[in-house]
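Continuing the batch. This is chain 6 of the set; chains 1 through 5 are on the previous pages. Same settings as before, nothing changed between runs. Recording input and output for traceability.
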Amino acid sequence: MKTPETGKTIAEAAQGYLEAVRAARSGNTARTYANAMAAFLRVLREYQLEPESPVSALNENGIIWLLSYLNVFSSATEHLYTQAVKGFYQYLAAEQLSEINLSRLEQLIRRRSRRTGQRMPQFPREDIERLLKFVNNFTNNLSDNPIERLRALRDRAFLLTLADTGLRVHEACSLRRGDIDWQEHRAIIIGKGDKQAVVRFSTRSLQALKDYLSARAALDGSSGRPLSSLPLFARHDRGAGRKVKPITTATGRNIVNERARQALGEEAARSITPHSFRHYFVTTVLRASGNLKLAQALARHASIQVTQRYAHLSDDELDRRYHEIFEHKTDRHEDR
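Output for chain 6:
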């Protein structure tokens, strides 16, 4: 058996771990893990284990200290930070940087961590439908300014794509023109967990994409690159100039925020994020089909328990039958 490497400090090992996370995970996940590791290093310092100490000095007791520190935080934050630090321990074991008893680590986490409460997804369905109606009408009043025109067509296609595919914002921003199978109305993507998945597109989202790409034809044609390699959603700002550059997830969030403010006003827009469209997608499937397995497959949820969290939002039949029973019961009592 190989012995752990010597020479690395806890801080250096943490940096190596975070670099590996950034290379393999989304930007949001990488930021969360960085926050978790910063908290973990603070906790270690409180227990007289400085980040400059040799990493071989770290053992599973660190997770006990972390869970004690996280006790004043929400159970959701505790869960996120614990998973991040657990990943760090697994990294240390895999890279043979320290002798970690992973079995004991798992037992400590199970015994000492709180259960995360499941919050029901909440989102303003009617406001999202108003927003989609607003962007659908963009073609009735397009600007003569070519950049503003491109932005309007892009933003309409982007929001309809989020609503009708269930794509996560970073997945939508990463799409290339060649990813779309226009005949089959679908795309093959690399989604969460680095897994390949098929995503279906509605007729209205594909038509919006065609309108946008048609208006972008001259820009794409002068790029000198194969059309299939170009981003599906491009930047249209001074920084991009005449180059065809993909939008970032930050731009995707800005598109949602800006168009929501235009359609609904400042206050209503605060409750709408890119992920609200994913909630909208799942509940639309459930409302139309009542089929949890179908919704799970289309949303690409790893566990059906995640999909079940949305079921209460589509239980119109249960609501109707409940009120039929109890309202009629009240009426009968009043007739006596």
